[in-house]
Every structure is written in structure tokens, then in C-alpha cells.
Amino acid sequence: MKKFAKNFMLGAATAAHQVEGNNIHSDYWAQEQLPHSMFNEPSLDAVDHYNRYTEDIRLLAEAGLNAYRFSIEWARIQPKPDAWDEKEVEHYRAVLKCCHENGVKPIVTMHHFSSPKWLISQGGWENPETVKKFAAYCKRLVSELGDQMEYVCTINEANMRLQLAALMQDMMKRMQAHSDQEGTGGKKSESDVQVGINMNQENMMLSMMETAQAFGIQDPRKVHTFVSQCTPEGDLLVMRAHEAARDAMKEACPHLKIGLTLSLHDMQPYPGGETFAGKEWDDEFLHYLPFIKNDDFLGVQCYTRKHFDKDGVTQPAADVRRTQMGYEDYPSAIANVVRKVAEDFKGDLIVTENGIATEDDARRCEFVKEAAEGIQACIEDGIPVKGYMYWLLLDNFEWQKGYGMTFGLIAVDRSTQTRTAKESLSVLGCLIER
């Protein structure tokens, strides 16, 4: 099998809340503790990456990987609106230095779904003031740590809120059509959104009310976490926050290469489904182009494909191979999406997430090889793909799904926090020239 060039960034990714543990000042932590929480289980110590990052980065490097994408937790740095925790800043400085000491290039994400609890209490991701608050946080942080950074993602999956809004609207159609003898209604499912969520209608209303109480908000419809449905204005607010943060960080550290990441699907229409596929691609990608045209790169994230017929999105057949997340197991999707993105975005591309949730590591090994072959073909065709980050480094806390999803290249026994590298880690590490 062909190998990536030495200067290609080949690595794995994590997100702070999913791996660090005890992120007690975040909105996610608050939601996990509710009596009628939508979470299967709370994150608690997670996989203790906060204390074990040295071991984890060393395992990554020893396998031959040269890049690590991780996020800095805003809620740790600013646990209160007027606080700035220098001890936590120094923690992340140590993580960055550990990367460099092991020959690993850090790719830093400034916001990966979780937010400070106080931000949500102040209106969250529908409050225009969030744009300024996020930009100020990013500027101050890179002013202190920017000398250790090169690649920075402002916001992970900046289009996620719009995807969730579409899913919620579809769910409401199904509820309204429940008694319809013809069975009309929505056709989407949890697996249409590339994040671990639960759509348990029985718990949802109680959870919404308890969530509002937890954030000191009277109306549950006015709780605006990042991973919640949004208005069209809220969707654009995220992009304005990205632009403001990018420009603020560039002012503080002109050397930084800054972009964001988007959650994308490989849109595949059957005859008659072309209009639906085009509309969904516009929603997921094209309408964001004006906001990212001045970025240094785009982080492309894809796990599966979507099919469309004359009635809209269709669910995979019952006999299609699926991942633990319910997605169709389709490793060709990432290369297809990279090619589609490159038609309109002419800057550098980094695959910031792509992976498979499965207990079968032999299947993970094959998935990695197939995805890598697709990316190598994109590079040979002149598409400027600069890196590939497998999701994810460690089996971890998959948001509302809890610890049942196993994406990782490294297994973790959470009773002892013992790490065991899987064969897939070495398979990925062998795909680059040394």
C-alpha cells in the first residue's frame, strides 16, 4: 500500500470533554447530572486524559503518527465570566510542549461542542454577545500559548446546530403524523447527525425543563447550548464568532494557520433525488463559503453517506453493514466529500475527523486502509489535502451515547484507566514514510 509523504500530517483526534474528565464548569457536565438526563451516563473521570496525556501522546508517536488534534476546554480556562485560570493555561502549555517533545504537530481546536455553563445562562449560542466573548477568549489564550501552536480550528463542526435543527423539525413531523394511517412524516434518524445524541421522546420534555432550571432560564426553548437546534440567526452567529475569533487570533499571532471544521456527508442521489441532495449539500456546506473564504484551511469531517430518492433522504437497507452509531459503514465517503468540497473551496484541506465505531478492530484496520487510499488518490489528483486525523485516539465518552461507542485506536479499561493499543493504531502509523 502507498504511504503518505513525510510532511503529511497523519494522526488522531480527541475532544477535551470526551477524554479529560471532571469538566465540572461546562454545560455538558450540568446536563449529565439531571434526574431525567438525555445522557446514557455521565462523563465523570472520562478516560483521565487530563492526567495521562503524556502516556497517550507517547503511544501515538511511538506508532509512527506525527500529528494530534485536541481541544482546549473554554470552561476550564474561564470557569466564571470574570475568571481566568492561569493554572489551566499552564496545563495546556504542558500538553503542547509534550506534543513537540515527541515530534507531534498539535492541531488545536478552541471550541469542541462544550461551553462554559455561565455562557449558556447568558443566552448561549443565540446571544450576539457570545461572538465578542469567544473572540476575546481566543485572542487572550493564543497571546499566552500561540508560540506553541501552528494550526488552529476555531469551532468544531460549525454547521452542527443547523443539522440538529433539521433533525428536530423532522422529529416534530413524525410526532404530528403519529396517528396518520398512511404513516407520513419525517424520514431522518439520530444517525443522520454525526454526533452522539439520543432522541428519547419520553425523557425529552422533562429533560428540557430540568436543563432550563439548571441554567437559570425560565423558558426551555431559550436554552441555547452549541449542540442544540438553532434559528437561522443562530447559525450565522456561529460563523460570525468564527470570523471574529480568527481575526482576533491573527492579530495576536500572525503566524497561526486558522480554519474551522464542518460535519459533512457524502450526498448520493438516486434518480429523482438530485434536488434533495443538492439542497442538503447547500445547507451543510455551500452557504458557509462566504464565511470561510479567508481561512487558511478547512477541516473536513465525514463518517458516512446519505442517499436521496424522489421523496428525500432514505435510510439504508436493513442488510447494510452499520457502525455502532447506526451509520452505514462506508469508508469511501471521506474521499468523495474531499473531492466535492475542493470544487468550491480552493484552500488547503485537512481531514480533521473520520473513523468508525466498532468492536471489531480488524474491520477498523480495513476501514483505515480504505479511507487512506481514497485520500492518497485525492492528493495524486492535485487536491491540497495536508493531513488526516482519525477519530479517535482513545475509546471515550461519545456524548449522550456514553461509553458504549468504541471509535478508538487505543482501548481504555476505565476501572483502572489502563491503555491498550489496538492493531489499528500501528496500521495507521505505518501509512506514512519515515
Automatic annotation (TrEMBL):
Record's keyword terms, sorted: Glycosidase, Hydrolase
Q: Which domain of life is it from?
A: Bacteria
Question: One Pfam family for this entry, by name?
Answer: Glyco_hydro_1
User: Into which family does the record put it?
Assistant: Belongs to the glycosyl hydrolase 1 family.
**Protein name in UniProt:** Family 1 glycosylhydrolase
